[in-house]
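Protein of interest.
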Amino acid sequence: MFAAAIFDMDGLLIDSEQAVMRAWLAACEQLDAGLTRAHFLSVVGLNRADTEAALTGLLGSRERFLAIATLTDTLLANDPAAFPLKPGAQALVAELAAASVPCAVASSSRASEIRLRLGEVALLDHFAAVAGGNEVARGKPDPAVYELAATRLGVAPGDCLAFEDSENGARAALAAGLQVVVVPDLKPPPEAVLARCLHVFDSLGEARPYLPRWFPALA
């Protein structure tokens, strides 16, 4: 059993990756950039710096990347409902919080962005700690962001259960010594990674019946 839970955010708690992909591809089309869905999926789960480096390389210049990123931000800003909660997220996190199970977020997004997005969907108060991709030297699949989240909770990584959606996220949590529950989003992890995980679900709601098995406070 586990003493704490650590969650990814984008594509797991918040349905942001779908919205960002749609906006990014629309911006690429408007600016005749030629990038495809496959190009976008190749950076899913990376931190901001690694994502920018990869996309800049694909686009051929920093200026081209910045133009598309700016238009993407504009398109998202014009869609106030761009980042809704994923199905089952509110109920699962609230159940853990009600049982006083310590919870943290370990995301490739910046810590300030994590707090903003979780605050917008009324989830932030359920988390005792946040660890962002800008706070570690290396992003997922490096384990650093999970190690930082566990440290901020004051719980050993091996006593934490991770909830992830991507290959890079699952690899990061496994490398940090956590067991992992996967709810795939845009890009499911390969079978070799899924085989190392505790469970794979279609939604976070499907994980709720398992909480008493995983956390003593809910047994």
Remarks:
- The first helix runs from residue 16 to 30.
- The domain at 4-15+85-218 is CATH 3.40.50.1000 (Rossmann fold).
- The radius of gyration is 17 Å.
- The longest strand covers residues 160-164.
